[in-house]
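Work Package 3 (structural annotation) set out to generate three-dimensional models for the target panel prioritized at the project kickoff. During this period the team completed the workflow that converts sequence records into discrete structure tokens, so that structures can be stored uniformly alongside our sequence database. As a representative example, we reproduce one entry of 490 residues exactly as it appears in the project archive.
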Amino acid sequence: MTEPLAPTAPQQPPHVAGSSHLHRGTLGVADIVFFVVAAAAPLTVMAGVAPLAILFGGIGAPVAYLGVGVLLVLFAVGFTAMTPYIRNAGAFYSYIARGLGRPSGLGAALLAVFSYNALQIGMFGAFGFFSATTVNDLLGVDLPWPAYAFAGIAVVWFLGFRSVNLGARVLAVLLIAETAILLLLAVAVLVKGGASGLAFDSFAPSHVLTSGMSGPLGLAVAAFIGFEATAIYREEARDPDRTVPRATYLAVGFLGLFYAFITWVIVQAFGSAQAVGVAAENPAEMFFTAMTRYVGDWATDLQRVLIVTSLLAALLAFHNAITRYVYALSAEHVFPAALGRVHPRHGSPWAAGIAQSVLAVIVVAVFAVIGVDPYNEFFLWVNTPGVVGILVLQALAAFAVVAFFRRNPAARGEGRLRTLITPAAAGILLAAATVLVCKRLDLFTGAGPAVNWMLVALTPAVFLVGVALAVRLRRARPDVYAKLGTTDVD
């Protein structure tokens, strides 16, 4: 089940009529960082999740984001050490296949497609909910949330269909806007000295080393979801052996420091003695209240609009990740070759984009007909299995790095620190983080144990389906099985 890959000649992507390659040499470091950070939706994470981290973990919550950032930097050390040996757009799939064997790799591939679809499609519920609320509050136009969700699907499809350059530019504008509004709040709080003077007791051991920190740690882990996208864009990156590692470190470093800083700022906005009480009273309004108090009503209205655009940016980033996974799997004939078609003019995986958008329309329509709550049920319940799945993939990828370098002595020139010690530590810590998230899944779903365990069970179920498919391919289609994880996009 976990046999290493035998040396094979690199397989080239299939030549489909019109075009078979994504746009080469299009994305620089900054472009890829925009895709990764946009997928994390910093404004939505801070305004929607950071108050919960403060509520459950107290004023030491900022340290949770720093801690998870350090953990993912450890992961990135091994991840980037292996990058020059993975010339494939399959990211986690390719890393795990090369390190832990083809069956595990295909299990990871299906889990990645499932997880990113769950993250993206579930987010349309949040997009519809916040769009409907914001438009109604600001303009007095009352439309049902599915109308906005379907409009969002159309916009995301169009931007994904056009060149990746256009998507990068749109994400750059949206990401800068949502980052700027948070920095505006931060500057206002710092200039006015917070509620009762600036203090750094959030970083004191007495507020960090508490049993309540398990909640913020679980929430913080989920806040970094999607940073593996640096490897997904290998085929479209300029000088990928340098661009992908740099983008990975920059994205993780920025998110860790930015999350910790903004969470500390919101504690200062209400004061260390009052912040937890404010979060307990109405966590959903904590950031909006601070924005009104320190900047003004106009900034609060702008923040509501930017949360909607923040979600749109994340939706586009996840859409691009999904289509490139499908593209990679189609290149190796796991998925139908037709799904790997690339637009001859735009260089986008347009067939995969249509398939993903149709799936989103179907799922949104079903939940709309059922009449579920778009945020508390559709978004949280559909999104959560995606979070668990990506965490499992990160842990497997870390262990895959160790296995790859142990089985390939010629590649050990990177040194034991990068190829063994750091990835092994990251894998153990990521596995522990996954367990922590599963134990505290009620923080993500608000549901009971039965629903939570059902959502958790989807991850191993999908992974095992992929493993079973690989075993079947090994017997029935050995030529396809031999190509798994070997496509050379360079």
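The radius of gyration is 22 Å.
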